[in-house]
């Protein structure tokens, strides 16, 4: 099988529409019915609603944990309401590759930290895409029995999309990244 991967010269928001279009096109080709998108304040989720409109593909937006509210990273009530009005489920929960207790003690050698750092070797978006799929699986919003597409990015917007077979955190070794659709060529 020959499959095209889109590499971006720069990270970030300017790649969002191309990333989501690549995700939509591959989801349709593969018959994938669910797409997970990382969305801190709603831009990526709302853009996904437009790009996926009329496809019947369910979008699940995963926001950053409310524990980051003091840093302004959490999704505000109004932002969440706007996304949900577009028919998108929104999940906010503990990060999938960390646990709050390990993070509280800055355990850099905790398994979740090692996995996160390894995925960042590909791109920040790769780490977030995997993490969001775990979070959505843990919440029962996606099935671990079929492939999904997970979309994330570096900073704002989306620049990474992967086809993956999700897993629960405690069964992380069962997670499989099947295809890389988009990613930044230059990581941060």
SSE topology sketch:
Elements: E1 6-8, H1 16-30, E2 34-38, H2 43-51, E3 58-63, H3 77-85, E4 89-92, H4 100-104, H5 111-120, H6 124-138, E5 148-152, E6 160-165, E7 176-184
Parallel strand pairs: 1-7, 2-3, 2-5, 3-4
Antiparallel strand pairs: 5-6, 6-7
Structure description:
With 188 residues, the protein is α/β, with parallel strands linked by helices. It has one domain (6-184): Pyruvate Kinase, Chain: A, domain 1, CATH 3.40.1380.20. It is 34% helix and 20% strand. The protein contains six helices and seven strands. The chain has helices at 16-30, 43-51, 77-85, 100-104, 111-120, 124-138; strands spanning 6-8, 34-38, 58-63, 89-92, 148-152, 160-165, 176-184. The protein has a seven-stranded mixed β-sheet with strand order 1-7-6-5-2-3-4, sandwiched between helices. Strand 2, helix 2 and strand 3 (58-63) form a beta-alpha-beta unit. Helix 1 packs across helix 2 and helix 5 packs across helix 6 (124-138). The two termini are 30 Å apart. The model has no long low-confidence stretch (mean pLDDT 88).
- Number of alpha- plus pi-helical segments: 6
Separation, N- and C-terminal Cα atoms: 30 Å
Query: Do you know the CATH architecture?
Result: 3-Layer(aba) Sandwich
CATH topology: Pyruvate Kinase, Chain: A, domain 1
Oligomer: single chain
Shape: globular
The level of helicity is: 25-40%
